[in-house]
Amino acid sequence: MVNIKKSLIHTAKIFLVFAFSGYQSGLLAQQAGEVRDQEFIIRKDRVLTLPKQPRKFERIPVLPTPKSSSTFNYTVQPYFLSLPPEFIRPEAAQKQWPRKQEELFPGFVRLGYGNYSAPILEARYNNWEEEEYNFGVKVKHEGFYTGPIDGSNSAENFTQVKLDGSLFKDFFQLYGGVDYDRHQFKFYGYDPTNEFLADYVPNQNTLNNFKLRGGIQNIEKMDNFNYDVGMFVRTFNDQFEARENELGLKAYGDFWFDDDLSTGIHMDMSLTSPKDEFYENIKRNYFRINPFVQYKKSGIYIKAGANIVFENDEALNKKSDFHLFPQIDAHYMLADEFGIYAGFEGDVIRKTYFDFVQENPFLGPSERLLNTIQNYKAKAGIKGVLNDELTYEAGLAFGKFTNMHFFINNPSDTLRFNMVYDDDTRLVNYNAKIGWHIANTYRLIASANYYYYNTSTLGAAFMRPEWEVSINNNFMPMERLLLQFNANLMGGIQGLVNFGPEETNLVQLPAILDLQIKADYQITERFSAFAVGNNLLNRNNQRFLNYPVRGIQGILGVTFKF
């Protein structure tokens, strides 16, 4: 009964399906506009049987060819442990990279000898292996124990000792050093043919200068803020009565807003106490501060600032101890091959007795020491680079100066010079420079200057050249040989000759032409030989009136590296 009942239910379901299908067809037919009568017969005893059909299975798809992939995904499970992150400290590789052999020699000794009884000894040593500090030592002595006039009566010699050291910390560097310079010479500017001076022995003078210096500066120069502050103490004396002590301070700082715009400040201070035959107990104070702003981008460079100076020199034409001058400097490179520049600046140029005697060692007792007031100096010109080998620059500068110094022979002792000052000097300077280099084979550096002085209280620009030419050539025809050929020319120098208390005469010195040649040949990695020739034309050159320089002079020597 149960089976028969299930069969009847199943049959009824089938007929209902067909009935519903037929009803849907009728509806579709009615929608098409056709109406028909339908008759349905329900038979309960009919059994439906369906034929067996084979089951269809889907085909297995072809798997794609595996390809490598650099992208990997990982599931990271969080572990909530209170562990500090690992600290990794980078360190430089300890491998000893190969370097050139010449870099392995921190020091050298040079020995030589030439005519005019001229020995030369030079030794240098630099310790650069330590990590936190380094130091260097330099000792040099060069003598000319005979000279151009009466042998030993025109002798001179130079001695120099220099110590340098630096201590490096994480962010700054401490540096310092000691300098000692000694120059011994004789006042040989007399006429050796004068029979009254047959047994004359000129006075000898020795200039001693000792300097102790130290400072601090930052190491990373690419920081936004950079600084360099240094102090020094210097003492000078000669064999007579000239003395000078100086305490100096030099400071520099700049701040970069970005790669193009920056601002900075320079500061110089000099406190000196000179003494000589005609003065003592003098305090010459000088303080200069130079704030500025500079901008550079795309071939444009502009620097604008001011020079603020206080100095207490006593001069008749002086209006105030305080000076304020503008400063502007600019250039614009239209291309690498061509650019223009211009500038305008006023300043007070510091001059100490040591500065004067470095320029002219044959000074007699000085009567007064004055700084030079640069009321203004304007310049303009062109410059550029051609084919990455030739550099050039040509320009014009003119200015107005107060208390510019000059040298004249002492009326009572022509072997010595006095300093004289001009109240109002106008100076025009035409200048040109050129540089040329060909790989590592040849290099040329040359410059030329023409000066026009218009003095107010002096008859001429005594002992200053009217024109100067300098030519330096470096040749390297082979790997071990270096040749240098230099030429220095100077002319238009005027001196003042005194014949009596009221009779004077201007004299123009002959043009100076000094040709020089140097050669250095490396024999081994440690040994090399050198040769130097000066004044090859054997000219009677006089930089200062009555003081001819040495004639042809040569030196031969060797250098040993250690």
From TrEMBL:
Main localization, broad class: membrane
Keywords: Cell outer membrane, Membrane
GO cellular component, one term: cell outer membrane
SUPFAM superfamilies assigned: Porins (SSF56935)
Subcellular localization(s) per the UniProt record: Cell outer membrane
Name of the molecule in the record: TonB dependent receptor
Organism lineage: Bacteria, Pseudomonadati, Bacteroidota, Cytophagia, Cytophagales
